[in-house]
Specification:
Layout: H1 12-15, E1 22-26, E2 33-37
Antiparallel strand pairs: 1-2
Bound molecules: zinc ion (ZN).
Length: 71
């Protein structure tokens, strides 16, 4: 791997596609330590999920087209 530092930041759009960061938090409902990505969590024990807006980064934009009615 090249270790050349790049001072220039990429555009916010590019940054949003970087690897998500794994973070941990205690479940707000049952206290279980759960792992999440970019500050978004879902507890497998009690089903608690935090607000997606609490994430550290904006969600990447969905590029999917609208579902077509024809199958
Ligand atoms: Zn929980």
């Amino acid at each position: 791997m090249t270790a050349t530092p790049r001072p220039e930041r990429r555009s916010p759009e590019e940054a949003a596609t970087e690897h998500p960061e794994i973070t941990y938090i205690g479940c707000a409902r049952c206290g279980t330590l759960i792992a999440g990505l970019d500050g978004r969590y879902a507890c497998s024990g009690c089903g608690w999920v935090n607000e997606w807006t609490e994430g550290h980064r904006p969600l990447p934009e969905a590029r999917r087209r609208r579902p077509a009615d024809t199958t």
